[in-house]
Amino acid sequence: MVNVVVNGIGTIGKRVAEAVKKQDDMTLYGVSDVSAGQGLRTGLSPEGGFHGTDLYASNSEGKEQLEEDEMHVEGLLEDVLDEVDVVVDCTPPGIDKSNKENLYRPHGVKAIFQGGAPDDIAEVKFNADANYSEAVGEDFVKVVSCNTTSLSRTMSAVDEAFGVDEATANLVRRAGDIPQDGRGPVNSTIPVTEVPSHHGPDVQAVMPDLDIKTLAVKVPVTYGHVHMVTVELENEASEEDVLEAFRDQPRVNIESAGEGFDSTAKLHEKMRDLGRKRSDMPEAAVWEETVTVDDGTLYWIHMVHQESIVVPDSVDAIRAMFELESKEASIEKTNDSLGIE
Amino acid sequence: MVNVVVNGIGTIGKRVAEAVKKQDDMTLYGVSDVSAGQGLRTGLSPEGGFHGTDLYASNSEGKEQLEEDEMHVEGLLEDVLDEVDVVVDCTPPGIDKSNKENLYRPHGVKAIFQGGAPDDIAEVKFNADANYSEAVGEDFVKVVSCNTTSLSRTMSAVDEAFGVDEATANLVRRAGDIPQDGRGPVNSTIPVTEVPSHHGPDVQAVMPDLDIKTLAVKVPVTYGHVHMVTVELENEASEEDVLEAFRDQPRVNIESAGEGFDSTAKLHEKMRDLGRKRSDMPEAAVWEETVTVDDGTLYWIHMVHQESIVVPDSVDAIRAMFELESKEASIEKTNDSLGIE
Amino acid sequence: MVNVVVNGIGTIGKRVAEAVKKQDDMTLYGVSDVSAGQGLRTGLSPEGGFHGTDLYASNSEGKEQLEEDEMHVEGLLEDVLDEVDVVVDCTPPGIDKSNKENLYRPHGVKAIFQGGAPDDIAEVKFNADANYSEAVGEDFVKVVSCNTTSLSRTMSAVDEAFGVDEATANLVRRAGDIPQDGRGPVNSTIPVTEVPSHHGPDVQAVMPDLDIKTLAVKVPVTYGHVHMVTVELENEASEEDVLEAFRDQPRVNIESAGEGFDSTAKLHEKMRDLGRKRSDMPEAAVWEETVTVDDGTLYWIHMVHQESIVVPDSVDAIRAMFELESKEASIEKTNDSLGIE
Amino acid sequence: MVNVVVNGIGTIGKRVAEAVKKQDDMTLYGVSDVSAGQGLRTGLSPEGGFHGTDLYASNSEGKEQLEEDEMHVEGLLEDVLDEVDVVVDCTPPGIDKSNKENLYRPHGVKAIFQGGAPDDIAEVKFNADANYSEAVGEDFVKVVSCNTTSLSRTMSAVDEAFGVDEATANLVRRAGDIPQDGRGPVNSTIPVTEVPSHHGPDVQAVMPDLDIKTLAVKVPVTYGHVHMVTVELENEASEEDVLEAFRDQPRVNIESAGEGFDSTAKLHEKMRDLGRKRSDMPEAAVWEETVTVDDGTLYWIHMVHQESIVVPDSVDAIRAMFELESKEASIEKTNDSLGIE
After folding, report:
1. Which value does ipTM take for this structure?
2. Nearest chain D Cα to C261, which residue?
3. What is the band of A341 on the pLDDT scale with cuts at 50, 70, 90?
4. Residues near D249 by beta carbon (within 8 Å), at least 6 away in sequence
5. Pick the CATH number of C2-144+310-338 from 3.20.20.80, 3.40.50.720, 3.40.30.10, 3.20.20.450
């Protein structure tokens, strides 16, 4: 059993902690943080998703703060790292780099970083569907960001089946997550002036040969990014062929606007009706009606649930790094445990 | 065991069906509708909340539509009503009245109606905390609307403890529920020009002696109404006294802005972290810091989750009508089954 | 002097009426409608933008309704059409077609239609910058929609200067105009399932040789659509070259995010500070920082004020149809009168 | 002619500068700031509202910054204060207090402060309708905030006509102004946990005998606060009496939902159609249909345009301090110049 600590219990961290706890080939050894945010507090409470898990402090000041916040702290993360096999680091950008150099590397513990971490934090940028094998045996792996994950899943499916000559993917970002209600914009669309936007180069870290062009804007919604994608195909494909390729992808859902799932909010409601915890949707969701092939050009629009889409990949990264399972077996185990069909 | 059918599987109906299924003193005999909306479809699917429940058609046209929608229909609701003890009618306003006259009364089956139904549909307007006993033995009961339910719970707690001389309660309504994204307003506040707004008279149907004045506006949010309440107290009370009275109320939560739950979105996130299905919050949530007593005037602000707050009361109404349990016992049973502490 | 009637005083109609009134080579003979909406009522009031203009009824029922609305009606539009040279028809889709066949053609009066009209309503689809000359002498002209207008202006500038090999333009639509606050979505992004979205083919009606691919989504904002555009250039160009080509376009503004105009709302505020009536922005606004050339690919993001962008083109269409001025002279006259620099 | 400087050219400052420029009994001697925000930049540009006005720096660092921003600076505000009669200080809270002590008082120049300034900055809290005479001859006056201004206008009208025994006024705040799109909330309602909210005590600074209770929440809109008001009347009044009292108030508008002005957005559109600069609405707008009298209780809902409502009062404050006109004459002059009927 691989001993896992999740360091940084925010939006991603709390979800990864719960996901690790559900696996039968790894143990959630502990969670670690520097203060008691609501995710940590509720997660450790009797109704919470990782109740009973030991809480560690990521550093000494953090220990003091946690104790001031009236949390029971087992001790410093550093003091138990020798019993830990891998840390999933979900701390804010900047902290992750320092953790790697000062904590994980000196103690010889493997680590997985999230999409916000600097690119040079790990040689392997990871997406389970696109490049599982590259993480095998690695000590440090970066799971790519939510948007890059969705593009990697969908693009790799299309690329493997029909070849992608070139692609354009334009992103409509959510303003903030549901509880981040101090962030704008209210009634405004904000262009991302970094051009091309970072998710283009990021997906190339996973699929180096992909010719992809990306732009992005931010809008006043809280649940879900949306991508508008255009692809020049290398080989002929019908719309049904493409839908089939997406259906074969274990973490891409085809959703029908015609059956009522015609917006991000309607998909949110579907996740609620399915009883998904937090109404999360770790799958990328492609709207069926938008999948169109016209004279060699493939179009589609898909949605990304920014809070949860990287959670299964974070679990798979652990299996790859410790060579616990093959790609297919790991994806299946993770999907089963999280209710992904 | 009381045999229950839920007729009309929309926002409220799908929740009531799932809640009834969780009780050990009643049976979800079936659900009934006239077409296959997403709530019905997902609820009956293997991952859904009332999978395995028999589906009936509320009328002949509905049977045809459901079959066209490729649903398996057991038959017409009317044909099995003799085996049913009570129907929880969650159909749209207008239909409910016709159902009562043409279906439930002729077959001698009891029925519970929701807040949108006309007032004269049932003599008893019901809120479990405020007037459970009035529904005992009744054939027809109307559970009051979400806003009225929240006011009944909080006002009855204050009135019983300290006496309410007069009250003002102003409502900030949500635009639509999460999936009702075709509804506005976007970037606008809409005054309700019916003055006083209906929830004032409505709460008087439950608490006839209450002197309450109400106004309302609608704003661009999807999760939760908010009430701003001012009460002139008959007897002295400290803020701590009032908080104590609210804490004693089994379906009122005290939430602390200072601990991070400082908005409707932050409470939404708390329900997500707690793993509540659909991130529902059937409790009325009073913000602790807003509970203020100043020279005999009591102030508070509370939040109402419009989709779920009436669900426990609908279950209690069944117990009252069949004299299954006392008020306290029913509330406790319902709360336990729904995870309300 | 060309006698102009504006028929249909809604979002576009009220602006065109005011714009026509400001020209020195045409006369606003009258406005026409079938009921007294707020735009009509306020526009004819002493503080309004076309006070003193004669009001006609577009049909007999409309005359009754207008009189019921207590408006002073000069008579039926049909009865004065012989004195009218051109009608700018801003009526809802469907009505426009019927007006053409039953009113304008029988009376031999020219007409201009708006973007929502069916494509076969006029042979010439018009954008002043892209194809002014095609409208010369025509009897019926359709001014293309707001999004198509913005693409025609920017694409024609790039195409004339450097050649466009192929283009992708993805649109982020506003939910509704400022007063259309009954329309959603609230907190949701809605994909347009018509693929490619209509503005691709529409711009090809103006620029027949353009290879353009388009997708669209709708988001909860009220002031401004946004386009994310990628173009493969035929000839080399630097970013400065492209900015120069845009600056030379008389109805494209370059706006700097770095100077504080970093969103649609900030541009809205700029129009307010400039004292533009209704804070309108008839120019397409390209964000300077997004104009990027990378290995033959040109990127940019621009904003479209949906309510006003087609107003100057509607005025120019009149001049073209009556051969009043050359393209350059007409654009300059219209721009001067509307405060477009 | 009174020489006026406006110090701090933000949301309020830019409007006050333009308003002062329109008066015939005062001169806009200059504007002053510490950096070149967009309001300042656009206002001084050829198309701007105070083009040609001299620009001063509020302090030495500000001078450097303004010059770095490539603005032409006449000099330091301090160096010309001897030629200035009054400064309208629209600087951020904190700066205003320091300006009073270090700039205005030492130079013997009068000053007017805005609603965000500390209460002890001036003895007189000013609203033209409610207490014009108190500012006569004063050296320092604070114009009360936008919400307090709206309550002062409406409450003083009702109090003078019928007597106010007690009042409840609950506020639904906008998230941020149109260009403040970095501020939330998106899809959330935020209770103000300060109880009673400050606008209750603030209106008492203007109307000391008023018994008023206030609560507030914040919602995702940008144009306009809304107040829900309940008043116990001392003397009998019909709804028509109350409407008449409001109509007699020179800065309160009665707006009809039934005529189409049924939301804050529809009133925004009305201001646009009227050609008001920036679509400002300095009047408080009471929705006619909400004015209701029921058994001695008066209800109404009104809207406040937060950016512009205090502008006319700032101008009137100058006249009162220099005894230029009587209350009625000043209000009429200001209203005429600003297009307020």
Report:
1. 0.96
2. D38
3. confident
4. D129, D153, D154, D156, D157
5. 3.40.50.720
